[in-house]
Write a structure and sequence with these properties.
The chain is α+β, with helices and mostly antiparallel strands. About 30% of the residues lie in helices and about 20% in strands. Strands 9-10-6-8-7-12 form a 6-stranded mixed beta sheet. Strands 4-3-5-11 form a 4-stranded antiparallel beta sheet. Strand 7 and strand 8 form a beta hairpin.
Length: about 270
């Protein structure tokens, strides 16, 4: 772990579970190789709670010098942790060409009153469609109530990525109209899972895999296997994520070439 001094290391950040700044820093030091690899060509967004999650929060896209936020090493990660950063968010395109994405996402956001079984069923439907299209994917929990599908795509203008993911979302919503929706406004969603394809639009960011989320139980946006979709997100604490990382390595790492997403959809009659 870095030798940088951590200000106020005993500051309680998550009162409900007793997690201090020192414990958060120890967690981030342990997952640093995973975060740094994912962040190496991205301009990042941090969300800071200097006084803990019950205090004031700050969204920050720029460093003190006005430049973008970049993670060049563990020292950077520790500095930001010392400044109150809890959540790390990344765009879907690299800093050199931010409007050209190399990642597509589908964010499953459950409506009020829906439990994890509903999310599990919706995720199974998304996975089945991607299998049909021969599109491999990675999975992670949102760290809150949802699941994120990630697809490694050939560099594609974000407008086209958004249109392609909208097509997939609409096909799914049409197939399961009582369970899934693409309605943008919450009042129109009812008790359904919202398929948020708009996360692919320009300038959006997603919580990074291994980022802690500012929820009372200090849950993590945790990489999961497909067979683990049914496990409720409350399982993925910092301790649980670290134990599996040490045991099994990084599960959120592309093991395949980027996908020509438009071609795959067109081949099944779903082109845009």
């Amino acid at each position: 772990m870095t030798t940088l001094a951590l200000p106020h290391p005993d500051k309680l950040l998550f009162p409900a579970v007793g997690v201090t700044r020192r414990q958060l820093a120890e967690y981030y030091a342990a997952v640093a190789p995973c975060l740094l690899r994912a962040a190496k060509d991205r301009d990042l967004t941090v969300i800071r709670w200097p006084d803990g999650i019950e205090g004031v929060r700050f969204y920050q896209k720029h460093a003190a010098d006005g430049g973008s936020i970049r993670l060049m090493g563990e020292d950077d990660l520790m500095r930001w942790t010392g400044w109150g950063a809890i959540e790390w968010h990344a765009p879907l395109g690299p800093r050199e060409t931010p409007g050209v994405h190399d990642t597509a996402v589908m964010d499953l956001d459950p409506g009020p009153g829906l439990g994890w079984p509903a999310v599990t069923e919706a995720a199974g439907a998304v996975a089945a469609l991607l299998d049909l299209l021969k599109v491999p994917f990675l999975l992670k929990t949102s760290g809150r109530r949802g699941i994120h599908f990630y697809i490694h795509v050939l560099p594609t203008p974000c407008q086209l990525v958004t249109a392609l993911m909208a097509r997939l979302a609409q096909v799914l919503a049409d197939s399961l109209p009582d369970q899934l929706t693409v309605a943008r406004y919450k009042r129109d969603r009812g008790h359904r899972i919202y398929l948020d394809y708009l996360q692919n639009t320009a300038g959006r960011t997603m919580a990074m895999a291994y980022s802690v989320r500012a929820v009372p139980s200090a849950l993590v946006s945790a990489p999961i296997r497909r067979t683990e979709i049914g496990i409720a997100p409350s399982r993925w604490t910092m301790a649980a994520v670290l134990a599996r990382l040490q045991r099994e390595g990084n599960l959120f790492d592309w093991q395949h070439d980027p996908v020509p997403l438009r071609e795959r959809l067109t081949a099944k009659g779903l082109g845009v």
